[in-house]
Amino acid sequence: MENEVMDLRQLAAYLERDVREVGKLADRGRLPGKKVGGEWRFSASEVNYWIETQLPELTESELAAIEQRGNYLTPDVEPLVYSLMSERTVAVPLRASTKASVLRELVSLAEGSWQVYDSDALLDAIVKREELLSTALAGGVAIPHPHRPLSPKAQGDAIVAYARTGSGIPFGAPDGGLTDVFFLVSCRGADMHLRVLARLSRMMLRPGFLDDLRSTETAAETLQIIDRAERELLES
Predict the structure, then answer these.
(1) Does CATH number 1.10.1660 belong to domain 5-57?
(2) In terms of CATH, what superfamily is 82-235?
(3) Of 194, 158, 183, nearest to 44 (Cα)?
(4) Where are the domains of the chain?
(5) Is the pTM of the predicted complex or chain greater than 0.70?
(6) Tens digit of pLDDT for each residue in 31-85?
(7) Close Cβ partners of 198 (under 8 Å, ≥ 6 residues apart)
(8) How far apart are CA 181 and CA 34, in angstroms?
């Protein structure tokens, strides 16, 4: 999917939108595409990146729709984010004080999943994604991740690592604020990648979730909060 090139109708089907609406967005420069022989062509990898950049602006229902796109037609009944984590992939607090050191430590945590086969490749991919646009969000949260899925030689199953620094650090947040809560996400497929990002975004919309994360002192407590928040989201 990542190397696929779509025409206008294929993109409309992929986004589950009316083809005329998608055509207008493309004509206005709102979608990452180019015309070849007078016809629109869109790179799947760039479209997925565009979807990522839209997530912070979406409503809870729009994020839920992202989760159910493609092959995921049956609503989840078990936590997704929590299932990709363990105490080995959580650090509270994280002893890092710069963006570079946070990224290195997050990759080290991800190695605790036993799904990282090439940590240098993962770190390089995450750094390059940050160079495109910071993954920091308003509210002191960042979700570092690769721009494209890693090869099977570099990573096995999907990974989520979590860390909270003792104080906020500059990470490129759009509101200029400091960042102290970090979720590293790395998935082998684009669909899973977007599902995890959408699920995290939905969880962050829940009142008190980030405050609860900031109040924890251990990895076990952190996982309990994530598990509870995700289950409450699925039950709502």
Answers:
(1) yes
(2) Mannitol-specific EII; Chain A (3.40.930.10)
(3) 194
(4) 5-57, 82-235
(5) yes
(6) 999 999 889 999 988 888 888 888 888 889 888 888 886 544 445 667 999 999 9
(7) 55, 63, 64, 66, 67
(8) 37
